[in-house]
Design brief:
346 residues; 12% strand; disordered N terminus; single chain; 2 domains
C-alpha cells in the first residue's frame, strides 16, 4: 500500500469527531497507547479477521467490510450486514484501500485483529499519523480467542456481548483440551490441509492458517521446515510421501475433483474417503479468515477425528454457535448445505 500525505481538509474532517468527544486511552497489543473515543460507534476493519469479528461482535458499528458479502454469506448474518459497503483492506496481501477512502468513511477508529508484528505496528502508526484516526491492534491466536474477544468488547464498549462470546470460546477450548488429553501425541491422526484448486497449497504447522488442526487434536504433516511463512506450496510427491490419515480442504473445487484425480487416487486417505470439505459460510470453519469463526470448526474437526470422544450432534452445536455469534440461527436447509462436505460421496 502506498501511503501519501492527505489534503488538509480531509485530515481536519477526520480529527473533528475526536476533538469534541470524551476520550480514553487503550494500550493495544502492539504496546501502543491509543487515545480512542469513550463511545465508539463507527469502526473500519483493517483486514478480514477484524471484519469477521466485528460482524460477530457489533455489526451495527461497522462502516464497511473488507470485501463484499455474497447473498449466500449474508443469509447467515444480521440483515443489515448484506448492505455494508466493501471498502478493501489495509493489511495483508492485496491491500486495496487508500487513505482518502479511510478518512471519507469517517470511522471513530481503525481496528486490526490477529498476528501482531513490527510491520503491523509500523503500518498502524503511519495510518494513524497521516489520518488522525486512532488505529488499534489486538493480537492473539485461536487459543487466545477469549482474551481477544474481551479486549474487543472493551474497545467497543460492549463488555456484555464480549463476555457471552468469550465464555463460549473458553468452553470450547477447555472441552477439546480435556478430552483430547487422553490421546497420546503419537496416536493422533496426521492431517494435510489442502488449499487451492489443486490442493497443493497448505498451512504450515504452528501458523495462524492451520492452528485449528493442532487444537482439534491432529498432527499437521506440513512441518515448519517448509518455510517461515504461514502458507507453503508443496508437490504431489511430498504429499504422497507424507501419506496423511486425513485431508481437510477449504476449496470446493478441489473437493469435487479429488475423487477422480489419478494422482490423488494414490493417497490412502482418498481411497479410505478420509477427505472432508470444511464449511465456509459465512466464514471458514478452519481458516479464511483466522478469527473467532473457527471455534465451531474446532468442534467439527474434533468430531471428525475422534467421533467416540465427541458424540455431540454437530448440527445442534452449529445452530447454537450461529445463533450466538452471528445472531441468526440457520435453517435445516442451510445446515445441510454447510455440512455437505462431511459425508464423502459413496
Amino acid at each position: 500500500m502506498r501511503l501519501r500525505p492527505l489534503a488538509a481538509a480531509l485530515v481536519a474532517a477526520a480529527l473533528l469527531p475526536f476533538a469534541v468527544s470524551a476520550q480514553t486511552v487503550f494500550t493495544d497489543d502492539g504496546g501502543r497507547s491509543v487515545t480512542i473515543p469513550l463511545h465508539v460507534a463507527h469502526v473500519l476493519p483493517a483486514g478480514p479477521p477484524a471484519s469477521a469479528d466485528m460482524l460477530m461482535m457489533a455489526p451495527e458499528k461497522l462502516v464497511g467490510t473488507t470485501r463484499g458479502l455474497s447473498p449466500a454469506e449474508a443469509a447467515f448474518l444480521p440483515p443489515a450486514a448484506g448492505s455494508l459497503p466493501a471498502l478493501g483492506r489495509l493489511t495483508g496481501r492485496g491491500n486495496t484501500i487508500n487513505l482518502e477512502t479511510v478518512v471519507k468513511a469517517a470511522p471513530d477508529l481503525v481496528l486490526d485483529l490477529g498476528y501482531v508484528s513490527d510491520t503491523f505496528v509500523s503500518l498502524a502508526d503511519r495510518v494513524q499519523q497521516q489520518t488522525g484516526i486512532p488505529y488499534v491492534l489486538i493480537g492473539g491466536g485461536l487459543a487466545d480467542t477469549p482474551s481477544t474477544l474481551r479486549k474487543l468488547g472493551t474497545v467497543l464498549g460492549t463488555p456484555g456481548r464480549a463476555e457471552a462470546l468469550a465464555r463460549y470460546a473458553e468452553e470450547t477450548l477447555a472441552l477439546l483440551k480435556d478430552r483430547i488429553a487422553a490421546v497420546p501425541p503419537d496416536k493422533r491422526p496426521s492431517i494435510y490441509v489442502a488449499r487451492g484448486p489443486r490442493g497443493l497449497e497448505t498451512g504450515i504447522a504452528g501458523s495462524i492458517n492451520a492452528e485449528a488442526i493442532e487444537l482439534a487434536g491432529g498432527r499437521n504433516v506440513a512441518t515448519p521446515t517448509l518455510g517461515a511463512r504461514g502458507l507453503a506450496t508443496v508437490s504431489m510427491e511430498q504429499i504422497l510421501a507424507w501419506q496423511p490419515d486425513v485431508v481437510i480442504t477449504i476449496d470446493a473445487g478441489f473437493y469435487q475433483t479429488v475423487w477422480s484425480d489419478p494422482l490423488w487416487q494414490q493417497l490412502a486417505a482418498v481411497k479410505a474417503k478420509q477427505i472432508y470439505l470444511a464449511p465456509t459460510q459465512p466464514f471458514g470453519w478452519v481458516d479464511e479468515p483466522p478469527a473467532a469463526n473457527r471455534l465451531i470448526g474446532l468442534r467439527w474437526l474434533a468430531k471428525l477425528l475422534y467421533p467416540s470422544l465427541f458424540p455431540e450432534d454437530i448440527r445442534s452445536e452449529a445452530r447454537r454457535f450461529y445463533a450466538l455469534f452471528y445472531q441468526r440461527e440457520p435453517s435445516d436447509q442451510q445446515l445441510k448445505a454447510l455440512l455437505a462436505g462431511t459425508t464423502p460421496p459413496s
